[in-house]
Amino acid sequence: MTVQQASPSRAHRDETGVIPRLARAAREVESSVQRRAASRTGRTKLQTVAILVREERARIKADPNLSSAKRAEELKRLDGIALILAKSASKDPTLLPLLGEGAPVSDAVRSFKREVLLAAGLEPEPEPEPQPVAEEDVPQETSKRVVPPSVAASQLARPFLEPDLSLARRKPDLDRLAGFDLLDPLFLSFEVGADGRPACMELPETGTARAPKGLELMQHQERFVAAAQNGHRSFLLADEPGLGKTAQALLAASAAKAYPLVVVAPNVVKVNWAREAERWTPGRSVTVVQGDGSNVDGFADIVIVNYEVLDRHVGWMTKHGFRGMVVDEAHFIKNSESKRSKHVVQISKAILERDARALMLALTGTPLINDIEDFRMIWKFLGWIDDKQPNAELTERLEATELTPMDRNFYREARKAVIDMGIVRRRKEDVAADIPERRIADLPVELDESSARDIREVTYTLTRRMVERYDRVLERQELPKTTLDEDLMRRIARSELDSDDGASQEQNVFSLVRQIGKAKATLAADYAAQLARSVGKVVFFAKHIDVMDEAERHFRELGIRHTSIRGDQTSAQRQTAIDAFVEEESVQIIVCSLQAAGVGVNLQVASNMVLAELSWTNAEQTQAIDRIHRIGQDMPVVAWRIVAAQTVDTRIAELIDSKASLAAKALDGSDTTAEDSHDLQENALFEMLRESLADRLPPL
């Protein structure tokens, strides 16, 4: 019998190089996961293989010396390894965070990576020296920095700010959890560890806090203030919008004697914060930072500043001796790369380093917009975590569970540990029975023939472009056009969003939705006018200025008195518009921008709302509705969502509703399956492409 010898190239492919070693390591992980939860060694191997697969894929794609056939063969082998890793992670969900490109890399992973590369005959590149992340990494822009005269005077009056060392900040002391990257498991715990329990720390049943004369505290507000009275000092106050978070924050600061207090808020609510501070803490002086702060009172108890000018004032604020800090609409800092996020964290870090007992409050009814990772910067602001690990208190709570991320029960207990750090989440239906229910009613409208024809043409152009890209890929892969590949469809949808070519800039999903909004404007305004005549005051929300302009033009033609809230208004103009709608009986409609009026506006004098355009997130829609569905509302609330029939509008409405499950699962203890973090725009394009491809298939 003749034994056929393997060719040199075949032997080289099978026995040498990095890919065979990655394949063996991936199978070892798969084998260990089938028998039990992944060991620490298995976790190290899985993350190392994932990193090297990405690096090898990039190298192969960039290698000009490889033939097309060889490149395709090597990429196919890497796909096989990636599939093994994915299957392993599906059996043990604790492995999922390690597959991500941004997962923290431990020393064990670096060591094993070096070992694999050396065994493959490759020289590992030297690891870059870790650079300390410090305040110097925050853009300084010193030319814009200011120190208001009154602030300088107050600092001269108290030149020595002694730090409070009675409770020094400690470093985490890891024992059982040493060697584990804990941040990703903590985020994952809010996806897989809900266990039907709402995300709310245990609060005192009663407290001694009393509202100023003429005001009244509800029980849920009193319990929160009592927690601050009892010594708790950091909170993510995530009550549903409309439950009085501003009052709770101000009274908690009073109970904790957290003065001077700095409040960071969106520009549109600064005036409202000043008003509320005077109502709920009448004995405290309040100052609002405008521009360079020339009129700021540096001796005030409460300093209110907006995100937009924080870069000018971050310097003196880190040295001012604040004993408390409130960040309103805290989801604004979810982007770790934004300047405002870095400035907020810079100030909070300085406050906590000087006083570990400072009161830190993050307020937001919608802490999660697209992803569980939206928690990261909020937790960092509160001092619960840093860039690499949880703080000492949270670490001790995790150690006390006597579990590790390899144990499935760890995620339930880890979620509780984070909640007990200070997450407070109450729903209207649970704590404010006197607030009537709300409902969202979709109102389909037929566009006029001219508008409908134009929208069909744009939709066809957009869909045709995606179908042609899809077909080109199938042609290169020599697959029939009847092939339906959902992964490929999603990649095509993503590439459409990322495309820079001129055609897609003129006719993309954003321009399509805007065109639909303009086509609906008069129809939506007409319906709002009918509501105003039959049920009283109406709030009208739109996303684009031209839609707002068209609605106001229609109201003028009909002789309906109205006012508006827009992004280009001053705080005074904005407040005048709100006061006119709330106090003047003849002002029947207020036309609001989704961006400018989505937060910090109380319009509960109305119980009906018209959403003329659909937002891109459930959170944005919820914020708008909660301008009227809040404490003080005594009528059932209806949000009329105007949906253009036979357009992508109907699909977007469905996708917005599906996004609601993320917060429900992470914060409210729901056992529903949370929507993943794919952008809604991508999902809308994906559905358009899938429907188009399905339509060209022959009937079954």
UniProtKB/TrEMBL annotation:
Entry annotated with the keyword Nucleotide-binding: yes
Residue stretches making up the Helicase C-terminal domain: 527-700
Any Gene Ontology biological process: DNA repair
InterPro entries, per the entry: Helicase_ATP-bd, Helicase_C-like, P-loop_NTPase, SNF2-like_sf, SNF2/RAD54-like_C, SNF2_N
Record GO terms (molecular function): ATP binding; helicase activity; hydrolase activity
Keyword RNA-binding set for record: no
Skewed-composition ranges (Acidic residues): 124-139
Annotated SMART domains: DEXDc, HELICc
Chain spans, region Disordered: 121-149
Pfam families (alphabetical): Helicase_C (PF00271), SNF2-rel_dom (PF00176)
Keyword annotations from UniProtKB, A to Z: ATP-binding, Helicase, Hydrolase, Nucleotide-binding
Residues covered by the Helicase ATP-binding domain: 226-385
Record's protein name: DEAD/DEAH box helicase
